[in-house]
Every structure is written in structure tokens, then in C-alpha cells.
TrEMBL record:
UniProt source species: Arachis hypogaea (Peanut)
InterPro entries the record matches: ATP_syn_F0_a_bact/chloroplast, F0_ATP_A_sf
A biological-process GO annotation: proton motive force-driven ATP synthesis
Gene Ontology molecular-function annotations: proton transmembrane transporter activity
Name this protein carries in UniProt: Uncharacterized protein
PANTHER family assigned to the protein according to its UniProt record, in alphabetical order: ATP SYNTHASE SUBUNIT A, CHLOROPLASTIC
GO CC field: proton-transporting ATP synthase complex
Topology relative to the membrane: Multi-pass membrane protein
Location of this chain's protein in the cell: Membrane
Family label: Belongs to the ATPase A chain family.
Keywords: ATP synthesis, CF(0), Hydrogen ion transport, Ion transport, Membrane, Transmembrane, Transmembrane helix, Transport
Gene3D superfamilies, A to Z: ATP synthase, F0 complex, subunit A
């Protein structure tokens, strides 16, 4: 149970980081 929540948290953190990096590049590329 705990391991599942931990894994989900890690995946969410990685996804958020990749999304932020992608948006950051898009914003810089737009400007």
C-alpha cells in the first residue's frame, strides 16, 4: 500500500518536472 503511494508520488513528481521543463522551453521559444 505504502509502496504504491510512494511510487505514484515519484511518478507525479517526475511528470510535473518534465511538464514544467517543457512549458519553460516553450515559453522561452515563444519569446
Amino acid at each position: 500500500m505504502f509502496l504504491g503511494l510512494f511510487t505514484s508520488g515519484i511518478q507525479a513528481l517526475i511528470f510535473a518536472t518534465l511538464a514544467a521543463a517543457y512549458i519553460g522551453e516553450s515559453m522561452e521559444g515563444y519569446h
